[in-house]
Amino acid sequence: MTIHFQIEYFTVWGENLFMRMTSEDGTDRCIALQNDGHGNWFTDLYLDESNVADRIVSYRYLVMSNGCQVRLEEGEPHILKLTGIKNLIIADRWKDASGSQVEQRPVTIPHVRHTGRAMWCGAGTAVPVFALRSEDDFGIGEFRDLELLADWASASGQSIIQTLPVNDTILTHTWKDSYPYSANSSFALNPMYIRLQDIGTPSDSVFVNEMEKLRLELNALPQIDFERVMTAKLRYLDVLYDEFSRKCFATPEYRNFFEANREWLEPYAIYCYLRDKYGTPDFNQWKEKHFSQELIDRYCIPGSRHSKEIRKHYFIQYHLHRQFCQVREYLHDKGVLLKGDIPIGVNRYSSDAWIFPKLFNMDCQAGAPPDDFAVDGQKWGMPTYNWEQMKKEKYRWFTARFRKMADYFDAYRIDHLLGFFRIWEVPLKYSSGLMGRFNPALTLTAKEIRLMGFKESPRKYASAPEGTPETNVLFLEDTRKPGTWHPRINAFDTDVFRSLPADQQDAFRHIHDNFYYERNNTFWENCAMDKLPALINATDMIVCGEDLGMIPQCVPSVMERLRIMSLEVQRMPKAYGVTVADTCTYPYLSVCTTSTHDMSVLRSWIENEMPVNAVIPKLKADANLCQSVIEDHLLSRSMLAIFPLQDWLAIDENLRNPNPDDERINVPANPDNYWRYRMHLNLEDLVSAGLLNDTIGNMIRSSGR
Description:
Shape: globular
Helix content: 25-40%
């Protein structure tokens, strides 16, 4: 295997960096690293795995001057396990413990080509699986479409594809099941993404012809008709199951899959059976409202009256797994990585909440504090996590969830990373997201509030006066620590605040700002470090964090310690007082992008939303300007530059969608958003779009990615 090692380390004149590598058989090598004159050191090394005992090597970096060792890394050596991957890039850092515990998780990039650059950088495309369109689809994007997308990515010099969550979201059998961040299982894949014809062709030719006519009709629609697609695909799967399951279940490949996934697969299948039996995912309305091992013994025994329906879900999940694994292998052969998305939460009526009720706080819902995109805050409906119980169980459920995703992905985005520091939690009794509070938090006692200058009891200002909105309060009592308080976020525009004397307004402002920006910083840092290392060390996947929004001061240092890549979005700059970020300021360990699925596309932002700034001229978003914006991102230091497919297409006047507003995927402030966007052209057309592909390839090569 060929390994590119890279590390940022600043030396003084006359010093050079070396790597001392030791194999398990005692073989010792000292390897000189090259540098690019900017503090970046690198070397390319070929290792013959057959000559390495136990396929494990350890190494340290050291500095030498005039043939003498000047300094050596502290602590334990770096450990590298050889796994048979042909190409591997290791982004390391110097281990300088200084008497303290240091996290030393390298960023490991497999399967991609190396461009000769000291610090590897790549480019790619972000697109939901459901949004893909090919000639073989059934009205919605499917896993197999990623192969065509990889053909296009490889031909244009891209090295990574990013998707939205791909877990099963079928809960109500309505269009609301289109929401990818509201899964019924953190382990099962979405049946909507299966390629039916890969399973087999039913013997009933009349049925096949009927479904083919429907497939062509649904696939020609400009957007996804989720309900019709779901109904048709599930009906087709019933027929395929009846005809092909017996042969499938007899194969060693299926038996291996079942045994490897049995722990989550059996409870999930029971959940799906009961959901359909009772016509609701709300397990509180089921006779079997509490999960137990006895249900597995009753429902999953072969030959039981429930067995056929239960085993159907095994069959579907097996074929989804099989197809997705084939896709991953295809992408790797093309030198393209696959990046997934792990949602911060699960649906409150999911199989996870039914099977593991102690892991969730069901009396509230997660959300987000107010920002420019949702001034009233957000409520997502999902319960928050009971982290104390998770810790008692050594985060077993969460790490299993990450390991399952590692079956398919090389990298992942942690949705709402800030939720691992603290989550915005809104009690179910409130209708406004402004009535949330951070959990956990160092809440305030009435005595502390008085000592900070607020003279009256917080309880007096914890209930809205009759006839006024519920948000007309200054304090919220903590439901888990009664008698302690949270200042209501952004309460400065309430009538009750305006009624306070000037000195009491100043006191409340001080309490509010201290609570949200100072008081909890160290506490939240410790909360994140208590759980994140166990979760991200469960796999070798590249870890990227969605660190947007109201970011505590402690977040960047934790991300740096754990080697979690940040997300840099030009329209959401992290520097105070800046309206549009300069891409030259982005750090190396980051993913930069022009927009996300929660935002308008690049063209809409430039023409309708972008403030006057010194970075991008306020012009019409023609192909030249869009190309210029993307080129600026490609030239940044960010390790990964990943752009929505819509924004790549924006650089071609002939291929872009005539109406950019049709390309928006989600509006976060709308809880009833219908996730139905599909690309307006076929992937086959994209693969053959020579002019666009040459343009993208030249842009990427010119940037050194």
